[in-house]
Amino acid sequence: MSIGPAAAPAASSSSQCGGEPSHAHQRPHTEAANATIEAAAAVLPPSSKAVRWRDLPNKDQLFILALCRLSEPLSNVCLLPYIFYLVRSVLPPANDNGSAPDPDAEAARVSTYSGILVAAFPLAQFFVSLPWGWLSDRHGRRISILAGLAVSVLANVGFGLSRSLGALLFWRVLAGLGNGNVGIMRTVTAEIVRERRFQTKAFLLLPLVFNSGMVASLALGGWLAEPVANLPWLFGPGGAFNFDGNPEGVGWALAYPYALPALMNALVLAGTLLLAVFGLGETLPGREATEDYGLRAGRSLLRWFRAYIYPRRGRGYATVGSQDGDALVEGGDHDEKPPTADTGPLKTSTPRPFRQIWTREVLASLVSFGLLPLHNSAFMHIFPVYLSSPPADNTEATIFTFTGGLGLRSASIGIWMSSFGICGILLQLFIYPRIQARIGTRGVFRIALVLFPATYAAAPAVRYVLLGLVVCAQIMARTMAIPSTVILLTESAPDK
């Protein structure tokens, strides 16, 4: 089950923090089992990270899966830099008497509908996460991932070309439905890489790709929105794409000023979909050898490419077993098939009865796990609206009553938010593991709990440079809190 656009990726990134999975012998059929693997992998000692990226088995499958993971950040967070301006452009006037609307009331109205539009995506994910898991357990992981990508492509095209609030909401919900299969991708990671010594490194891949995709989508979303203003050399009056010589700019860019980011997302995801159709193998236990027309066509294309486009003399090709996705790789010393000593079917264990899991520790961890995305996701989605809102006179404002924002354009907001995303990635990679190793998971979580209210209280009262410091503090708290809640929840379970 997804816990929101901001929380989900960071929860996945808990695998960066070290620990050998104590339960790696279990069969990872469900999101719950796989979340346990990820959280346990988050406490590996540094010495266990000697495995290099090039040592990972099934790198072709992991690469395709990582690209598939881009679907959620591209479909979800790309609109944040321009959400305020998009809603304002399609929102009908509040009154019909022809009088000028009150700027503060209009900004509040836009903010309300922006929140509804943003919340539709994770709400749709919430309702379909379990059905996606059911579908993948019965019909295969491959069809579930391909179907989700296809829905995401369609939803992005529809969203970009919509000019009414109702249509935007429909396509936003559809995008959330298509991206409810995030848990399946984590499960596929565990099924692709079954050797315990490789799993920690493999579980780093998806969250890193997610965070990188989020940074790129925020930057591109800000710059590609309103292309006539943000990219005048391409879409402006004298732009390279203004073939008709329109003195105002490219016609379709004026009619659909916020279509380009969504259409770019659709193009990237369509390419990923094709790559997955031709190359992503089935990993559902018992069906690993299953092939369809797409995989057969992909194998033929790969064989043709290696024979005529990129031949290597003196080197033959060998077909590896289903453990490596039945992909064609070069023979010789670089065969990626893992040693057989640690492979093979994973054993299952008898699950504890559902009524026995509700210990005090589990309940406390679940409450923390649920409250964290509640306020963290709210901040992540309110913050760009605050940056977009026009400035207002707040001479008599208090910490609880204030209006207006900074009045930044979508391109500036995209740069701001992507810069903060880069900070989050660096903190996840280099700061959190060291702090967690020194003061423990609960100590890190307590520090985060102190930082959150301080940053939320200070955010509306500061401007520009100080606001950057506040947001960096919020990112620090988020980076420490999200993996900590995953680890605490896993450790509190009476039975893995």
From TrEMBL:
Keywords: Membrane, Transmembrane, Transmembrane helix, Transport. It is found in: Membrane. Residues 61-496 form the Major facilitator superfamily (MFS) profile domain. It comes from Apiospora hydei. This is MFS general substrate transporter. It comes from the Eukaryota. InterPro entries: MAD_homology_MH1, MFS, MFS_dom, MFS_trans_sf. SUPFAM superfamilies: MFS general substrate transporter. Residues 1-93 form the MH1 domain. Residues 1-15 have a biased composition (Low complexity). PROSITE patterns: MFS, MH1. The chain crosses the membrane at residues 107-131, 143-162, 168-190, 202-225, 258-280, 362-383, 413-431, 443-459. The lineage of its organism: Eukaryota, Fungi, Dikarya, Ascomycota, Pezizomycotina. The keyword Acyltransferase does not apply.
